[in-house]
Structure formats: structure tokens, C-alpha cells
Design a protein that fits this description.
Elements: H1 21-43, H2 53-58, H3 65-82, H4 93-103, H5 106-118, E1 124-131, E2 134-141, E3 156-162, H6 169-172, H7 176-182, H8 189-200
Antiparallel strand pairs: 1-2, 1-3
The structure holds manganese (III) ion.
């Protein structure tokens, strides 16, 4: 089974002006494609070639660094495209209740995730994940994620924000906090809610 690049479910310019079309095109067609290609190359002819991404993540410490970096890259970006949208959605249902119960408000959660992303030195991700039925915020370096056995904070990711420079540099240059402010305009909360429901059931 070889891994494939998922098609973007919206146009490259759908997230304008918050995330520009050129960034989306390069990010999806070049960066994500490279993670997929390099993952397939790293797995070719090994007994991990038939494993799902989730299976790889759960035992990532037993694989080569190329599997960790590119498998993480493939998983993380597949999730990232899914939780972005211009549909103007807001948290609803069980997710909305859990956000209020855990963080006090949506604004408090956004602040916490933005801070986690802004203070991640170098490249990485800011995460909202579920563990033991509870929401939690964390960040990881490089292409690591909370599914990995090496993660400091483990859980099932429901929302991930890419804070690599390639995610924002064309429009925001060195101003990562501005990107982290703008991205809240284009979160697909319906998709995050569906991931939350699946993670807690
Ligand atoms: Mn990226």
C-alpha cells in the first residue's frame, strides 16, 4: 500500500485573505507531496510498507527518522487541510461544551493554542487533542504529533496548526503571531467537532 496525497477539498484561494493562494498551492502540491513521496521511499520493501499511518505513529520510535519526519508530515498535513475552511463555522454541540468546560471560553482556547505555536522554537505544530476524554493543548517540534509514542503529551489530535515558516512566510514573513491570529478566521469547526466526537466515543 503506498501513501497518496489527498486532494484539497477547496480552491487554493478559498482561505484568502487569511492564508494566500500561493502559500496553499506550494504547501499542498510541493511540501505535502514531498512528505508522501519520501515516506513511500522510506517504507519501500520494509515490513512497515503495509501499515497505516496511525500504526506507524503509535510505534514511531522503532522506525527510521525518515519515517518519523515524513510519516508525521503526511499525517499532520492531511489533518491540517481538513480542519481549514471558509465555511464560517463555530464550535457546536459536545465540542463547544467541552471547550467551555476545559478552557472557560473559545477565546481562551485560541489564546492557549496561539501561544503554544508562537513559543515553539523553530518548526513545529500547535495541537488540540483528546486524552482520557479530555481536551488538551500542546505543541510538538518538526513533524511530530500527539499520536507518536515519543510525544510528551499524547492524545488523539482534533485540531493542528502548522507553525513551520512555509505555512505563512510569503504573506506574514517573520510575524508568526499575526498568522496565528488570522488562522482562527478559517478553522473548520464542523470538522474539528466530528473529530472530537469520534475521539470521545
Ligand atoms: Mn507544513
Amino acid at each position: 500500500m503506498s501513501h497518496t496525497l489527498p486532494a484539497l477539498q477547496y480552491a487554493f484561494d478559498a482561505l484568502e485573505p487569511h492564508i494566500d493562494a500561493q502559500t496553499m498551492q506550494i504547501h499542498h502540491d510541493k511540501h505535502h507531496q514531498a512528505y508522501v513521496d519520501n515516506l513511500n521511499k522510506a517504507l519501500e520493501g520494509t515490513d512497515a510498507a503495509d501499515k497505516s499511518l496511525e500504526e506507524l505513529m503509535a510505534n514511531i520510535s522503532s522506525y527510521a527518522p525518515a519515517v518519523r519526519n515524513n510519516g508525521g508530515g503526511h499525517y499532520n498535513h492531511s489533518l491540517f487541510w481538513e480542519v481549514l475552511s471558509n465555511n464560517g463555522s463555530k464550535p457546536s454541540g459536545a465540542l463547544a461544551q467541552a471547550i467551555t468546560d476545559t478552557f472557560g471560553s473559545l477565546e481562551a482556547l485560541q489564546e492557549k493554542m496561539s501561544t503554544a505555536g508562537a513559543t515553539r522554537f523553530g518548526s513545529g505544530w500547535s495541537w488540540l487533542s483528546v486524552a482520557g476524554g479530555k481536551l488538551q493543548v500542546s505543541s510538538t517540534a518538526n513533524q511530530d504529533n500527539p499520536l507518536m509514542d515519543v510525544a510528551e503529551v499524547k492524545g488523539t489530535p482534533v485540531l493542528g496548526i502548522d507553525v513551520w515558516e512555509h505555512a505563512y512566510y510569503l504573506k506574514y514573513q517573520n510575524k508568526r503571531p499575526d498568522y496565528l491570529k488570522a488562522i482562527w478566521n478559517v478553522i473548520n469547526w464542523d470538522a474539528v467537532g466530528a473529530r472530537y466526537d469520534a475521539a470521545v466515543k
